[in-house]
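Because discrete structure vocabularies remain unfamiliar, we reproduce here a specimen of the format, pairing a chain with its fold in token form:
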Amino acid sequence: METISPPITALNVSPAYRAEILENPLQTYLLGIIISICGNVLISISLNIQKYAHVRQAQRCSKPYYTSLMWWSGVVLMGIGEMGNFAAYGFAPASLIAPLGCVAVIASAIISVVFLKETVRPSDIVGGTLAITGTYVLVTFAPHTSTNITAQLVQYYAMSWHFLLYMFVEIVLFCILLYLYKRRKVKHIVIVMLLVALLASLTVISVKAVSGMITETVKGQLQLVYPIFYVMLVIMVASCAFQIKFLNQAMKMFDATEVVPVNFVFFTASAIVAGIIFYQEFEDLALLNIFMFLFGCLLSFLGVFLIARNRPKIKQQDRNFIAMDKIPGRRHTDTVQPEAKTSTYGSLAAKLICNRSDQTADS
């Protein structure tokens, strides 16, 4: 008579089963790192391409940026880079992939100097050195094993008491922050970016689960028939959508030089915590490795902060005003706002009349 093995839950998982799952070749671990680094480099290239398209459009006052082939090529490259990051979660720990996002900041700073001719600042050199050093340290001391994510393992992790407690605390904290942001109108960058970070922790958990189950399916172990796959897929899409919403609101209220470093720090911290609690990535890791890993993250945080601090802004011409030096025969460089309902230049004509009066008086 054929025996049916019981479903794997938090109560009946055997140590032998977990040891089999935790087995992961070093080649797979390195593959995840390489994919993540390449994805972040592509993202930095795409951001600079889009930035160049915006600059060229502002200088030429031509068609909208979304009609530019160059801008769309940057969007395509960003999509490929994000797909690389998505795939990397299936091969390496989430607590390692998230801090590697500093590679995009470093590469973006280098590309902007080489191709966009931006000025190299001392803070860029110091920040780049710190970020590269921190990346090397955290890669060296990060957990070198990663679970082979299966649907049964995701169900086991989702039912663990420490994750349920983590979710309870996160939901309560999210409701408090949302109340302060929406009802009390507290428009502080920490409030908004904490909302993004709390959503990001769910994004990291679900992205790694979906990516890992797809990876196992490609290897021959079908995982797409389990409901938990689609539950994680819905969580991934929903958390990403609301995360982008709050991030866009932060970009409208605050400068990018504030949003970029704060978002990187909060996102990385939430991803590390999610990896530790849900996927138990620091289990059996030596205390020295944990300390050096966190030290590497701290160096990366400082490097990103120095690179993103006081970055030069793109200067766009204000189209609500007409430059006086564009009028034939005039040397005046002021800008005045024209009156829309007159056939003449309105305020511009009055300005010219004043200038002519002054010239007549001088003669």
Q: What stands out?
A: Residues 261 and 305 are 5 Å apart (CA to CA).
